[in-house]
Amino acid sequence: MISKRLKELFDIDVEICRSFEDLQVSYDKSSDPITLAISNINLPGAENGEALEYLVDLSIPTIVFTGTFHENMRDKLMAKDIVDYILKDNIFAVDLLAESICRFLTNHRHHVLIVDDSATARALLSSRLKRYNFRVSVSESGGKALEILKANRDIGLVITDYNMPDIDGFELTRRIRANIGSHELRIIGVSSSSNRLLSARFLKAGGNDFMLRPFIDEEFYCRVNQNLDTLLQIQSMRKERAVA
């Protein structure tokens, strides 16, 4: 059913592996890099998750499609740096899976800039976004971020920390908005502060969204997708008006 759906939507030819042995043989015989794997947690011959471990060890981007889920399971899945997980618990599960696949296959068209003076924070956000197949640039300061934006006009999303030594997130947002509008670039502010008013101040400075650390992976990815979807919708509407 999944194979048929992907063929209809994306004209993708899918290789089906019904067991762990099939998976190993398929990988050994493949002459091209595997773009994406969709896997259950357990397969015949790999009843304890060995198939998923195999895919992760090979650094193959993987979406888990499973009917087994609880909080501990979720934590274990996210710790493996999988792309996503989809639950087989409703009639729309295959459509949700298709949407997740579509996003992964098209995310490379989006260029995201991360601005944070913390090397650890930059690495964490960069790793998350690259896991989802986004193109990523990073900056350790607001000033450097402005230079990167000037040189890379294809950047569609900036994720910026609030508290930075040279230019804070508010001022960086104001300077960006002096030259680039929301129809060209979305901005998400982030902070570890407990001050709930930061979000209001950031939005009034020209930001489009705001998130408090620590993030939940699913929420972070959803907010990124929502902002990029909005950007594409705005750009599509502007093109339609220009043609009309």
UniProtKB/TrEMBL annotation:
Residue numbers bearing the 4-aspartylphosphate modification: 161
Keywords for the protein's UniProt record, in alphabetical order: Phosphoprotein, Transcription, Transcription regulation
Response regulatory domain residues: 1-103, 111-228
Pfam family, one: Response_reg
Domain of life the protein comes from: Bacteria
Entries under Gene3D superfamilies matching the protein: 3.40.50.2300
PANTHER family in the cross-refs: RESPONSE REGULATORY DOMAIN-CONTAINING PROTEIN, STRESS RESPONSE REGULATOR PROTEIN 1
Identification of the protein by name: PleD family two-component response regulator
UniProt source species: Rhizobium laguerreae
